[in-house]
Each structure stands twice: as structure tokens, then as C-alpha cells.
Automatic annotation (TrEMBL):
Residue span(s) of domain Enoyl reductase (ER): 14-329
Protein's recorded name: Quinone oxidoreductase
GO cellular component: mitochondrion
PANTHER family for this protein: QUINONE OXIDOREDUCTASE-LIKE PROTEIN 2, SHORT-CHAIN DEHYDROGENASE/REDUCTASE
An annotated Gene Ontology molecular function: oxidoreductase activity
Amino acid sequence: MKAVVVDRYVENYGELRVSEVAKPKAKDDEILIQVKAAGVNFVDTLYARGLHQNNRRHIKPPFTLGLEFAGLVLSSPTTSPFRPGDGVFGAYAGSYSEYIVLPSSYPVYRVPPSWSYAEAAGIAATLPVSYGALSLPGVLKPGSTVLVHAAAGGLGLAAVQICSALGYRVFGTAGSAAKCRLAGFFGAEACIDYEADPRWWDRVVSLTDGNGVDVVFDSVGLVEQSIKCLAHRGRALVVGFAGRNRENLEKVAMNRVLLKQASLIGYRFGETGRRYPHETTIIWEALLPLIKSGRIKPAVYDREYRDLGSVPRALEHVASRKVWGKAVILIDDDASRQRASL
């Protein structure tokens, strides 16, 4: 079978190659899945280059790239709730592959009947991250206002939808007017194009009648500027720093944190899952009803990436901020077709 295997860390994504590897065989307590589509995430760009903190311990060459998928169950143990022919999606390392094998106890979920495999493939590595961060104790309170940075990206758009679905006022920032329109379509009350309005924090203060927002959801690395539009005793939620690298990581003036009596909160979904696995179950128990009700919708980038050979191009587009929503690799010909039934 074909898979994108990283034998060594690359300098540029064009060095990645599709390899022929042995098709996995499921043991008695495992599920064999044919991958129909795989989501593309910013973290994939880091893993490929050896720049992610997990490359130090958890993920080292050789490994198959990719973090999330949607596909067709080919075989499963009798104890599994899934049968051959079921469409499922989930987050699992090694999804840039034609087939994967998972333990039967591993959390995967049914593809909603109205979704295609492509739509389901871009959910499992972003939506629970955003929800897990926002649902931390004390982050969202009744009447909270929320500012989401990169509001048209994978994590940001998920955060916008979650806040909107739960009834919070949510604002966004994004890098173009088109991306801001997308954030608005998915629930942002207002979105500020930081390319056109470099003092975006002033606009946020104005939109909140001079109060500032109660919560900032930051996956970019904008804590320093965000404090300028954070309400007194507000919470800055740090879920990443995609706009920075090792050489220019943020250094926040702590006197400004003190003056605002602000809380800085970091959240790592992967580390949370390793240390507190029960929290993943709680997160999905809250998310699945939102998906079923239609309050959470997929947003697939309109550029088509067909077959595993398109992975380098997709990663380049994600790294250069061209992508809104989620880029998805169509591994199988029917990946973009809606599933009629499950």
C-alpha cells in the first residue's frame, strides 16, 4: 500500500515521498480501516521538519505522517460497536496512508450521514482541541466575550463555532477580508482583518464598549498584543504559537499581566490525553450532540488535494497561510461523496 513515510526530517516539503509499504493486518482486538480522506494540520508541517516538541520523544523517523482521517471499516472484532462497511473518523498518527489499524478500544466516531468522508476527515485533530481548551474550569463564564485569533483556521474556526453554539459573543481576527467573512459565516459577531487594521486590539476594545474581551483564544502567539484588549481579570488561553518559531517565541511583560490581573492558561490536547485520558471521553460526549444537531459544521478548503502525492503541496499551502478551514487529502475516489447511510 501507499503511505507518506518520513525516513528523515526534511528541509522543504517537496522532499517528502509516497512510499510502498506493507498493508497492515488487524489482530483479533484491532480494527482495519481503509482511509478515504485525511485532514492536513499545521502540526504536520512541524513533524515533517522535526520541529515539534514531540519529535524529541514520541515521534521519530521512520514514521508515517498525518494525524486525522475518515474511512471505511474493513474488519473489526465482534466486541466492537463498528461493523465492516461503517464509515468512521478519528485522530490517529499515520493517517497519510491507504490503510490503518487501530486498537478496538481506540476512540473513533461514526461519520454523520449528511457528511462526506472529506468533511469528516478534518474534525478530530482540531475540534476537540478547541473544545478542550475552552471547557477548562473557569475559562468560559456566563456572559463571557471571546476573541479568537486565526478565526478562519482549523483551530480558530472550531473555536468560533463552539463559542457561537454555546451562546457566547465571539469575535475574531484573520489575515484577509475573505477569511473574516468565513469566520462571520460560522458565527463570529465581528472579525478584524489584521493586515488592514494592524491595531486590531483597539477595534476589539471598541466592539466591547471599552471593556475588552473576557477570553482570548490564541493559537498564533499574540498574547502580548492581546493583553491590550483583555478585560480586567480576563483569561488568555494559549493553544499554540503557529505564527512564531523557536527564534522569536513570545516574551510577555509580566507587569502587564499583573496590572490586568490576567490569567495565562496553556492547553495541550495531546499531553492532556496522555495524562488524563478520561477527559477525551468527556470532550467527545459534549461535542457529538453539537455535531448531530448541526451546530458544528465541517469547513473544507476549496482547493482539491487528490491522492497522497499532493501532501507536499497541501503542507506548503498550510504553512504559507493560504488555507482556510481544513485542507483535506482525498485518498480514495469517493472521499468527497456524501454517505447515503451508515
